[in-house]
Amino acid sequence: MRAPRLSRRLALEELQLAPDGAGGLTKVWEGLGYLWAEITPASGRLEPGEGAARGEILARILTRAALPGSPQRPAPGQRFREGGRVWAILAVAEADADARYLISHVKEEVPL
Questions:
Q1: Which residue, among 73, 72, 69, has the nearest Cα to 93 in the 3D structure?
Q2: With contact defined as beta carbons under 8 Å apart, do 16 and 25 qualify?
Q3: Has residue 29 got a pLDDT over 70?
Q4: CA–CA distances in Å: residue 34 to residues 16, 31, 60
Q5: Measured torsion, CA atoms of residues 13, 27, 69, 35, in degrees rounded to the nearest 10
Q6: Which partner for 108 in 33, 57, 77, 97 could form a disulfide, CB atoms 3.0-4.6 Å apart?
Q7: Predicted pLDDT of residue 109
């Protein structure tokens, strides 16, 4: 494995439900911290939608490894954020035999 270029600072976020003040719940993304990462685009496609089409970009995000159960270890259902860009985490696996890095398979939706 070549030496990764972890040059992008991404926020790792997890979905939480919070009271909305009217007896219901609202979805809130809670920040878990920041990870340095390398993003590699994999593929993309145009997805027809109701009212407007949207682009869907699949990518791989490489980060340093963290132990299972650590809040710094990405997990499916969480997301990475960099400014206005958001990547939903679909799956996570060790990227190398020494388990020094993790690779997150992600999806970014882009409105057109």
A1: 73
A2: no
A3: yes
A4: 18, 8, 17
A5: 0
A6: 57
A7: 76
- Phi, then psi, of 2 in degrees rounded to 5: -70, 160
Find where tokens 């030496």 sit: 3
Q: Is 111 helix (H, G, I), strand (E, B) or coil?
A: strand
Question: CA nearest 40: which of 87, 99, 97?
Answer: 87
Residue found by looking up tokens 């299972």 in the block: 68
**For strand 54-64 and strand 79-82, is the pairing parallel, antiparallel, or unpaired?**
unpaired
Tens-place pLDDT, residues 65-105: 998 889 899 999 999 999 999 999 999 999 988 889 999 99
Q: What is the pTM of this model?
A: 0.85
